Amino acid sequence: MSKENIIDLFYNEHLKVNEKDTFNGYKRQVTGRLKEYFTMEEHKRKVKELTAEDLDEFYNHLRKELKNSTIDHYNDNISSAFKYLLKKKKVRYNPTDLINPITVEREEVNTYTAEEVIQLFTILKGDIIELATIFDGIYGMRRSEIIGLREQVFDFEEDYFFINHVAIQNDGKDNVEKVYFKDKAKSKKGYRTFPLFEFVKEAVIARFEQIEENKKIFGDSYNHKYDGYLFVHDNGDIIQPNYFTKRFKKIIERNNLRKITPHGLRHSIATLLHLAGVDIRDIQDWLGHENVSSTNIYTRGDYKKQVQTGKVVAQLFREFNGLEDKEQKKRNKKRIFISRYEYPLNGNLLDNLLDKYLANFTSGEPDQNVTSHINL
User: Fold this and answer.
1) Is the pLDDT of residue 102 over 80?
2) pLDDT tens-digit readout, 41-82
3) DSSP per-residue string spanning 301-346
């Protein structure tokens, strides 16, 4: 080990023990600025020679082009590498423990009001990412969770679905496999179950039916590799997470909507639930956050609580999903998914404009006064 430099540290001792998505993230850093800096003659170091001062100089070098938030990722990766080596007793200390603190800038994330969310849904009506955006805007799901949805996670009799499988975008230029899948969530809290709203259920069923029709149309040229996945193109190719993000951005720009990202839409439902009086811990469960502090940036895993949170979402988008009728049917069948308390709702959250958007969406005939400025 004493003969190895900082680059060898990553390749030989750290990268190989990480999962594919973590590996690719580290690899881009190692083959980029990290390698460029530490292969300069004046900066070459053996692993045991690396000091906190060396790292401070490296991070100051990075600050010429990068934000502290990105530099903090470099530091986290180097730190985790040294933690691994400490366990193996190959180094005596972790130099990242002694560096100057890195102050990470908190970036503001644009969020939408309920009215703006419904307007976006209306604009996307019939688009290939319409349903994916609904899962984002109503359930607050991550794009990896959305693209990873498969038919087997939906229960159309009991009206629920769950998260246990994700799609990861591989951004490495030297990798042929651009999307791969994992039977795991981002964290323990990521494994969660959602109530399946009636309009979402109908849209999901319709999409799977269309997929079966597409298989007949494309015949032998249909790609069966992703059979069972909800979000595929007409020919069966998976809709890549990056494709979703890029198309989302293009539609926002073309229609002169207030700037927002898919991640910002996730923030939006968290903010709306918070304003509606939902407990922060229940928002945490809805979003799949491991800890409450993560949820607080946006503004317990009990399914009854998820259903109760779903009721608040249903009221925020009340004519959009027909959940009230569904709840009545459940009571008639003596179903037991009733929470032990009710959330107080802020009546100012929705107004007549929202109802108008909802009515336009569900009618199938957009009001020209609402959408005449839209150019798809």
Assistant:
1) yes
2) 888 887 788 899 999 999 999 999 988 888 888 888 888 888
3) --HHHHHHHHHHHHHHTHHHH-HHHHHHHHHHTT-----SS-PPP-
From the centroid of its chain, how far is CA 339? 27
9: closest CA among 44, 40, 41?
A: 44
User: Considering only CA atoms, which of 112, 88, 103 is closest in space to residue 266?
Assistant: 112
- Structural domains of the chain ordered from first start: 6-98 (1.10.150), 114-371 (1.10.443.10)
Between CA 149 and CA 164 the distance in angstroms is 9
| Amino acid present at 87 | K
Stronger pLDDT, 101 or 124, i.e. the higher one? 124
Tallying the residues shown for the chain, one arrives at 376
DSSP per residue, 190-256: G--EEE--HHHHHHHHHHHHHHHHHHHHHGGGS-GGGTTBSSB-TTS-B--HHHHHHHHHHHHHHTT
Say how many C-beta atoms besides its own lie within 10 A of residue 314's C-beta: 21
User: Which residue shows structure tokens 């992703």?
Assistant: 226
Task: Phi first, then psi: give them for residue 143, nearest 5 degrees.
Answer: -65, -35
Sign of CA dihedral 359, 363, 367, 372: positive
Nearest to 114 by CA among 248, 251, 265, 255: 265
pTM for the model stands at 0.65
**Spatial CA neighbour of 275 closest among 326, 366, 345, 353:** 345
Report which residue type is found at 262: P
Bridge partner list, 179: 169
| CA atoms of 196 and 326, how far apart (whole Å) | 10
Give the pLDDT band (50/70/90) at residue 31. Answer: low
Q: How far apart are CA 139 and CA 158, in angstroms?
A: 18
Helix 52-62 to helix 68-87 angle (10° resolution) is 150
Give phi and psi for 180, each to the nearest 5: -135, 170
Q: How far is CA 38 from CA 28, 31, 90, 93, 102, in A?
A: 15, 11, 20, 20, 20
Q: Distance between CA 366 and CA 256 in Å, rounded?
A: 18
